[in-house]
Amino acid sequence: EDEDDDDAAQPYVIDRMQFKRDYRGYLDRRREHIYVFTPGDEEPIQVTHGDYDDSDPVWSPDGKSIAFVSDRSDNPDLNYGSDVFIVDVDDENHPITQVTSNEGRDYSPAFSPDGRRIAYVTSTGPDVGGSALTPTKYLAITDIDADQREILTPDLDRNVSNPEFSANGRDIYFRLEDSGMNHLARVRARGGDVVREIDGDVSVRDFSMANGEIVVSLTTASTPAELYAFDDDLSQLTHITEATLDGIARAAVEKRRFESADGTPVEAFFVKPVGYEEGRSYPTILWLHGGPASQFNWGYNDTAQLFAANGYAVIMPNPRGSTGYGAEFAHGTVAAWGENDFDDVMAAIDHGIETGLVDPDRTGVGGWSYGGILTNYVITQTQRFKAAMSGASLGLVTSNYGHDQYQLMYELEFGLPWENPELWAELSPFNKVENITTPTLWMGGEVDWNVPINNSEQMYIAMKRLGQETQLVVYPNEHHGIRRPTFQRDRFGRWIAWFDQYLKPGAGPVAQSD
């Protein structure tokens, strides 16, 4: 008998559809519930129960109840929906009242100051995880005693988040995502026009309200997030990141608009290398964001600044599938990954060449998560790039069905793999791996169950078998995001070394190990 065996370990017994989550592992029937802890007590009190996950808890103004979010349908594993509930904490039986009822997602609740209404984020159709099918997120309000949803932003074809009532209850503040920007906006609780309180080329990462005061976490393209007090004007409260970056040159960033192959307007952020000289063309990295339901914005991007500090121009496009440009644009890649978005990112690099920033003979491409997936679609369709970095990406789609955490998303967007095998095969970069001639660095976390490492392993071994230049780097005990600081530094260093080797004349080979 192995003395190292853990006698306490038990087998996982699986009988549910959603049985895995990245960072959580095998789920069994473990659920997330709401607990209340009173200082001085020995143990917290559990106030929600059942075979459901509960989240987003917020206290009512009188401190007697908690609003929270849960999917309490017959089988929560078969949908991405959620509703708002209230649990009575004062009552020892902790009765629960359902406040909203929606086939999509209702979440991020906020009580009005009088405790009679709740503002929240809603969607008007079924949610589909983080895929391009994800519907627009609207701001809504309802009385706690009646499920009568009123959407306060019905004509705003943009996502909202983080609603908070003003101290007098007349206004609701929220974050508004729009065309590469994140603004602080407000609307009357009874309805009306949306007013942007903080706008322009900034990104409001978060905000908090108390006693009539507003504090925001705000970032720009050249400055990481700092805290500001807001009262008509911004007053900076912290200077933490300023001190960190004191004396460090930062790259200039500009947002440009151009047309894709079919005439669709597309935007991208163009980052000039530190020390940029007008009239010169530079080695350039086309850097692709994850999601796809996400966007690059005016916030500080440390990856782009790292590349720029090492002499690269960087292009960060928001192709179709991105949020912030309306539902039609976001849905432009549904069940068609690597088509419209491929055209859009290629239009971005072409624009950079046409305007003189990009050296066409020294271009690289890369990204993480869906950014890595789109990288795979790029390098299987064109040989224009001299190097690629594909992080936490997809290879053979069917090999992920039941292995990663997106089984339901795949079914809703692609259909069942045995009923629609042609689409599943067409969407798999692995099936076109023989087209790849671009030297490619594959990366991922050893225990990533978001986009498992087996994808990168399969893409790597196929390229290796075909005699192409490639390398695989796996980070031990890491999930979808690489968190350990030493590994983060290692990853950044490998990115620079890989692109240097192929985009900069005279660069040495990439080290095989430390």
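^ that was protein a. below is b, sequence first then the tokens
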Amino acid sequence: MKKEQLQTLIKWAEQQGIPYLANAPMREYTTFRVGGPADLLISPKSAEQIRAVLQMCRQEGAPVTLLGNGSNVLVRDGGIRGVVLRLGSEFSQIQIEGNMVVAQAGAKLAAVVNAALGAGLV
């Protein structure tokens, strides 16, 4: 990502009150604990913030990589160019809809399995 894009996105995230970390060490956000830095890691706390971040990244032409809790994700040593949109525990809702389980990106796999078991889907 270009330096100007990064500075614009950081300033914008600060103004919006959206948590972010520049040059984020991705090894701290994945279960394998490997990988280089992301240019910018943004951790929205609501669906509205997700929408706003995606809109701003599109406007700035910044590439976006989505990340849930980081399970079974490998990041190369060179890191990730652009914005990593981290959808953590704030986005862990699980719903049963008929014979389907709908889980948000931050839902833990064990919780999803337990919900399916509880609904008699397994």
